[in-house]
Amino acid sequence: MELDSSGGSGLILSALTCDQWGNNSDSGYCNPAYDQMWLDQGVLTDPDARRAKINEMQQVLFDDRPQDCLRLPEVIEAHSPKWDGFRALPACGIGQQPVHADSPRRTQGALISTVEICGPGALSDAILPVIIGVLNIANEKAPGRGAELVATELSIPIESLLAASDCDGSPGSIGKAAIALSNGSIRRVLFVGLGDKPDAVLLGKTSMLASAYGEVISTLALEAPNEDEAVHAIVEGYLIGRYRPGRPGADADSKLKVVTANPEKIAPETITRATDSARTVNWVRSLVDSPPGELTPPKFADAILQLAENANVRAELWDAKALRQRGFGGTLAVGAASPFEPCAVVISNEGSSKTKIGLTGKGITFDSGGINLKKNSELVWRSPIWLPAPRSRLLRSKRFGATRA
């Protein structure tokens, strides 16, 4: 990247700093290491040194992919064959990388993050951003137990910071602050609204929202009557929030510290259940995000069979021949529009109960659609029907012709 005429490095790089969340940042990307690079390059006077630092920032953005392009326009390029030494860049979006049909990236959705349950003393052990819950009592914001604890442990004027923040204590409201500590470091604080009676569901949603900060230390568990349920919700919400399409393991270094009054009373199974739940949700999301040219019926079936094997349940694959023998004519007819034959996976788990329960899931990776016989209003509410499975729908209308959705 070239430096602009004013000696700065342009708007694009600054738009992806944490401070631009809610302003010029469209994605809410926040990477403290990137922010530090931005500050460092701003004080460098040697052009080569600044250019090297900016190139380092560009590499971070390329690797992190803070923005995903939803539209890839067709571009025709022409240049002399005598030109060489060029590296192809993404057609759209910062860090956008090509997806290959045999890429394993989209068959996984779990992010591996470090989760630590700790006591109040952990607040002074790190410089991670602190997540603090704010209550709303009689339409007035009020600091929760976490705010009082942070004020005591770090000698931070929490009440004055909260008073100046945009967080009013209502669910979903947010306020950000930063304060210089006596050791010269900067401590970031994120205030999040919890309403008047925060429950586990709200704590999970709030933790999901706060996960945009990356590595954090959360005091939200202190605001709930049942810390075990609160920890489960906070961990689950954080891991779901850290999901990035097509980037399994990209945040392997992400760290979540959850402060509780009695960390020794939090059962290890609580973390295990929350982690397993979040990874399963993210696994499903990664399949939903997969384009139909990559996640074909055989690959979709393989992913399900692998999951069943890991869960120690019995799974059986019905290929096109088996579907024909069992009378699945409609499935075979629709699948005939694709070069990949349809299939089905039957999963069973033998329990001790004599009652049998059967569930059927429609997993569409391709639907030729045919003539659109549905009203536009029906198409809107029908969209979620396809969400449990990766899909591509070819919706035809007289006005738009064939459109992939």
Q: Using only CA atoms, what is the Rg?
A: 25 Å
Low-confidence stretches: 1-8, 87-111, 248-252, 380-405
Order of helices and strands: HHHEEEHHEEHEHEHHEHHEHEE
Shape: flat
- Per DSSP E runs of 2 or more residues, the count of β-strands stands at 11
Question: Please, what is the average pLDDT?
Answer: 75
How much beta, percentage-wise? 5-15%
Q: Summarize the amount of helix as a percent range.
A: 25-40%
Total helical elements: 12
Secondary structural class: alpha/beta
Main sheet characteristics: 7 strands, mixed
N-to-C span: 35 Å
Overview of the molecule:
The protein is an alpha/beta fold. The chain has 12 helices and 11 strands. The strands form 3 sheets. Strands 1, 2, 3, 4, 5, 6 and 7 form a 7-stranded mixed beta sheet that branches. A hairpin with a 5-residue loop joins strand 4 and strand 5. Helix 2 runs antiparallel to helix 3 and helix 6 runs parallel beside helix 7. 29% of the residues are buried. The N terminus and C terminus are likely disordered.
